[in-house]
Amino acid sequence: MGKSWDTKKVNDFIEYLEHAAYNYMDCLCDVHQCYEDYINNETFVGQAADSTKTFITLKQKKFNQQQYNLSKEMVKRYIDLDETFKAIVDPAADAKINTDVVSNVKTHFMNQYDYLERIGCGVQQKTIEAVDRLGKYGCGLEEINFKNTLMQYYDHCGTGGFLDNCIKKVEEFDDTASTRVFNSGIKNAIQEHIEEVTDTSAGLDMIHTQAVDINKQTLSLISLSAGDIFKKVDTIDRTKTQKITFKSKLGNFDVTYYPADIKDFFEEYNINVNKLETNDGFFMYDKSLAEILEEAGVDPNRMDYKDYDDWYISGIVTPDGRIVYSMVKVREPMDSKGRWGTAVVFNSMSVDSIEEIIAHSVNGEEIDDTTIENARGQMTKISGAAAYPDDYDKDLLKYFRNTNSEASYLIADFTVDKVVHNEAFKDGVYELPYKYEDFDTFGGQAALDQLEEAGIYNKEKNTITIKNPDSLSPDEKKAILLIATGDHDEYAYAAENEFHADTYGVPFYKGHAISSGAGVGEGKENDGADWYEKYFKSSKKRLISWYKPQYEAHGDH
Prior knowledge:
Layout: E1 4-6, H1 7-39, H2 47-88, E2 96-98, H3 99-134, H4 147-157, H5 162-184, H6 186-203, H7 218-233, E3 242-248, E4 251-257, H8 262-268, E5 275-277, E6 282-285, H9 289-295, E7 311-317, E8 323-330, E9 340-345, H10 352-362, H11 369-383, H12 394-401, H13 407-420, E10 429-431, H14 441-453, E11 457-458, E12 463-465, H15 474-485, H16 490-503, H17 510-513, E13 515-519, H18 531-538, H19 541-554
Antiparallel strand pairs: 1-2, 3-4, 5-6, 6-7, 7-8, 8-9, 9-13, 10-12, 11-12
Helix pairs in contact: 1-2, 2-5, 2-6, 3-4, 3-5, 10-11, 12-16, 13-15, 13-16, 14-15, 16-18, 16-19
């Protein structure tokens, strides 16, 4: 039986498998939250409850992680096979081959070769004789020569010819691919996982239930204590996030209260900053945190905040009215230091201590060290998110996983406006700090080629030309976003943010996925970025998985 390959079918399967893995992960976040709720719930007690809680803690999460990791490893193996086939056999996106078919074609052509050689040689000999006999009479006869035709036939189908090499390449690919898959250990890993799950499932039969008496007066006791609880709610300071513990005969009840919109606080303390909002609950402020603290008169020697000159307070309003604060990084790429142009972080932070520092500074009051330390801690959770992957906010992550979310488009517009109004563009011409080769092949370089045709990018001088920063053409906007984020348009930028949110799992790839950094050269260097980041930045597959849905949802942006 011969070897066969169909690049299109393989790519379609990779997309299917990849989506299956991400959908599993997406559901898993909610599942893990249910796990935590159940584990921390003291209503369910007894041997059965304790055993299941122990099982969830020690085994179930581990199994979930193993299943997801194995799925991702399978995706990696198929991508590796796809790339190996392109490198060894055929780089075409629609390549399809079957060595049995090629062998049959080769046999057919060799039969034709033998027939031509046999019959053609006879014809050739007759023409030679005719030329010898009649040439002297000036009849213009020419000798028929089949040598070149026979050579072309042999180059195509003979030993070492084109068809022969095709078969050998496929066989070489098959041997290489088999060796890689075997050496990857994935087959053994899958088998071990199946055996472990099977053994553990058998062990679950060891759990025995135990009846527990529940106090039938619990419901009435809760009802009797409700009045006291709500009286205490009215005394809460609603400007601060805080946990209030209520004590009753049933035990302690923890209730969390969230602050009012920080916009009200800025207005109260005369901080001149504009709030930018989408229609679906996302917001950000148009002054960096460093600018806000400086305007409030915060002493930079007391609190070093200069590094936050490109971090902007942002957040979402959840369906239940909760305000989740975070920050978005928007760096103006006027030099080659630091790859990220923007960073959307899925961690949340409290703004209480920042508000307190601003209030004390405006009023000329002393700020204690604890408040400053708390503020720096909250800020670091965002700027250094990779070190705090467990501080993600479920609602924030869920928001950016939603293809219909509008935040990325607002951030993209804000980024373009910030970059194009930088001093570097005062003369309309900006020399890029990045080389053409620094941009990814699929999106970046292709976009630059298009921009060169439009007269915006000059490849020889490596410059971008903008006519009017206050009235950008679609191509000019695309050029600015490209040099800031490495994404060739706003749909690609939104797709990248959604991709990172999709890739963040519990607890998979947390450190890299917790912050969606976008910049020129992402995925081209071996800088520790996970394989998926490189895959996303360098492959047309993202058109199907993330770009196309974004365009379909926001094509009229």
